[in-house]
Design a protein that fits this description.
single chain; about 90 residues; alpha+beta; YaeB-like fold; 2 helices; about 30% strand; globular
């Protein structure tokens, strides 16, 4: 079993993303939050569930929805959520 932790950047980026989605649709924000929670729960057991990122191979990228991806890194028995990002925007991390 792995322990899943969020980086400060990951927490902040996710909070901003949820705020922007919530401004459009509360239901969409709740749905995304439920998907992220389910994914992080799965990562605790299946750490390699998502493929490596093309740009930064030490990170793994999970496509949560068509528009949203989550990046994480495995370090020993710890999983660090690096960021939750909008796929439609240009990011250095993806």
């Amino acid at each position: 079993m792995y322990q899943v932790e969020w980086t400060e950047y990951g927490k902040d980026a996710y909070a901003e993303l949820l705020d922007s989605i919530m401004a459009l649709s509360l239901d969409a924000a709740i749905s995304l939050d439920e998907k992220i929670e389910k994914l992080t729960d799965s990562l605790a057991t299946f750490s390699h569930i998502c493929p490596r990122s093309v740009k930064i191979p030490r990170y793994r990228r999970c496509v949560v929805t068509k528009q949203i991806s989550m990046l994480y890194e495995i370090r020993g028995r710890m999983i660090f959520v690096i960021a939750v990002l909008d796929n439609r925007a240009e990011h250095l991390l993806m």
